[in-house]
Amino acid sequence: MNTSPILEIENLVISFGENEVIHGISYQLYQNEILGIVGESGSGKSVSSLAVLGLLPPKISKITSGKIVFNNEDLTKLPLKRFQNIRGNKLAMIFQEPMSSLNPSMTCGKQVEEILLAHTNITKQEAKAETIQLFEKVKLPNPERIHGAYPHEISGGQKQRVMIAMAISCKPDILIADEPTTALDVTVQKDIINLLKALQKETQMSIIFITHDLALISEIADRALVMYKGRIVEQGSVLEIFKNPQHNYTKALINSRPSLDTRLKTLPTIQDFLSNTISSTIVTPDVRKKNHKALYSKPPLLEVINVEKEYISKTGLFSKQRSFKAVNDVSFKLYEGETLGLVGESGCGKSTLGNAILQLDKATAGKILYRGIDITKLSKTETRKLRKDIQIIFQDPYSSLNPRIPVGEAIMEPMKVHNLYASDDERKEKVLDILNRVGLSEDFFNRYPHEFSGGQRQRIGIARTIALQPKLIVCDESVSALDISVQAQVLNLLNQLKEDFGFTYIFISHDLAVVKYMSDQLMVMNQGKIEEMDDADVIYSNPKSDYSKKLIDAIPKGL
Length: 559
Fold this sequence. Notes:
Elements: E1 5-16, E2 19-30, E3 34-38, H1 45-52, E4 61-70, E5 73-74, H2 80-86, E6 91-94, H3 98-101, H4 108-119, H5 124-137, H6 143-147, H7 156-168, E7 174-178, H8 186-203, E8 206-211, H9 214-220, E9 223-228, E10 231-237, H10 238-243, H11 248-255, H12 270-274, H13 285-295, E11 300-314, E12 321-335, E13 339-343, H14 350-357, E14 365-370, E15 373-374, H15 380-386, E16 390-393, H16 397-400, H17 407-417, H18 424-437, H19 454-466, E17 472-476, H20 484-501, E18 504-509, H21 512-518, E19 521-526, E20 529-535, H22 536-541, H23 546-553
Parallel strand pairs: 3-8, 3-9, 6-7, 7-8, 13-18, 13-19, 16-17, 17-18
Antiparallel strand pairs: 1-2, 1-4, 4-5, 9-10, 11-12, 11-14, 14-15, 19-20
Helix pairs in contact: 4-5, 4-7, 5-7, 7-8, 17-18, 17-19, 18-19, 19-20
């Protein structure tokens, strides 16, 4: 590693209007180095990185003081034209959400070619050849097909690889990767991490890797810095930070993630660490065994028997119909008060199965018995009544809430639909009680969804679900996009509500650490079928199938 830094941030202060959000941060990035920046939403990690690229929103934000020195040039003083030559060429970025960063009306190949043509002196023919080569480099299957495909025609992991190809197309000196693996499967995440490490080794570029997951930083970075509320609270080698964290916030980030070895009754949150009120009650194997004995002595609440979901696709006017089984001969039992974990990679059929149970997308074969009644045979009116008993908590609470309705009304809405309680006054009283239950203040009743953070919106989604007092709740990736400590709060809340109301959960996720922590039984799905099903702890300590082993091996373990 060179001793002189390629990028130097000196006492950087950034304000949005009158509000100072970055408070004098300083750090260096060296050539051929991977620097991890870790912290939760709102800690300032993305804002400070956008400043490096000159991408701060111009009308509402400004750098009030400090320097950003790249190759001996202060980027804060550069004219726009000069900055445009550097951005995309010498400094590149992979954004968190590839779907919203890629242009849906252009093919993937054209989007990469556009950058090559803007920054280099090559012909269109050469740009196409170079793009296909880049797609090979980022290990995209069938690069020619993806070159001509639109973003919606490829998977999330493939979209992220297209973004990486775009970012490295001009061989940048610095690549900023902003949460590039947040919503990806553990196995795809591992592939992307390995890919970035291999590209970095080959091209000698420097990488700033931004995430809220410290365990992930340990897999990729040489050095790390921890940000909290617009300040750097700790920085050093990854080993130092992991083995001997100095700041309580860093300790909290390391410990808020569910442990793979010990099962705590309540996960510690950032607040617990900062106020030194950590509960260390452990759920022992004996306690778990006792709970399970009581759970499984009763008849099942839900029985899924040989369920299949088949989709028919027709590509052209005269082409043959092709069928695809998203769920293939799946059977299992779910007991009252149980949490069944459902895990597998994207496309394995877990959400399709969840939708079939919810009667949102009817199964094409098999039976689904709820309290002994086959719900696949219900009339529309009966299905509507069933909605009260079987509910869902969505992955993205923002898109499942109406932006024009205050959250209090959004929670009251399903109560009205199902004629719960005598009057709106009574319903409002119940909603205020539910808001308290999910850790939100009563004065949130009249606020709108855009006024809340991601964690708060997820609580509103949960409040809306439990307003109907359902028996069975399908949690579909309901914590996958949350910060580690917010995730801990929401998982604690789900467990608390389960205890208070006797809920039964089907917990769908691609995060094995979270599923193992939450679940009694664990079901691993692959290509529409059940790979294996057993006690969550048994599968984790002794997976029978190679597929389960691969999923477990891909979990970032930390140092």
